[in-house]
Amino acid sequence: MREKKGYILFILMIAVFIMSIGFLIAIPVWKTQIQREKEQELIFRGKQYVEAIRLFQIKNPGRFPQSFDELIEEKCLRRLYKDPMSENGEWNVILPHSGVTSKKTRSTQKVLVAPLSAISSMDNPRIIGVVSSSTKKSKKIYFNQDTYDKWLFFYGQDPEQMPEIIYYGKAEKD
User: Fold this and answer.
1) Which segment, 7-21, 58-72, 94-108, is predicted with the most confidence on average?
2) Using CA atoms in the order 133, 134, 138, 143, what is the torsion angle rounded to 10 degrees?
3) β-sheet bridge partners, residue 152
4) Per DSSP, what are the bridge partners of residue 28?
5) What is the pTM for the complete model shown?
6) Could you count the other beta carbons within 10 Å of the beta carbon of residue 144?
7) How far apart are alpha carbons 61 and 113 in whole angstroms?
8) Which is the most buried residue in 3, 78, 87, 152, by most CB within 10 A?
9) Per residue in 92-102, pLDDT tens?
10) Do residues 126 and 95 lie in contact, with contact meaning Cβ atoms separated by under 8 Å?
11) Per-residue b/e over 113-141, b at no fewer than 16 CB within 10 Å?
């Protein structure tokens, strides 16, 4: 009888070892899958804000919202969505910058990216879109960008041409 107890313990230890290896293999795959699902959610939510701003433009020609609350009040957005890639869930907002700069024969659109908290200190902000506040590297490449803070979602965006990004509070490059 004693010899059987030893075999059972040995078989149990092998089973636990095999299960541990299985978990070591499964956890990275599981984390990657969760990150990809969050990336899909980021794209969906970003596009919801773009559509809300488009609807706002239809209802208020020539005007852009000065806050996300205006999008709710005008019934352009049912609810505020959180940024799924950042810890605090706060988006950075995209505002139009001083226009178009000519560089040889090519013109580049400029956008200003600011934290949502900075909107209250601006005179007449015009929100045209959102971008994640997370600077983490993505699994997916979205419009040739591999970090979430470069995945721009804004009204009037040309997917073929990445605009020049000016960050709020940082000096502009000459």
Assistant:
1) 58-72
2) 20
3) 131
4) none
5) 0.79
6) 9
7) 23
8) 152
9) 999 998 644 44
10) yes
11) bbebeebeeeeebebbbbbbbbeeebeee
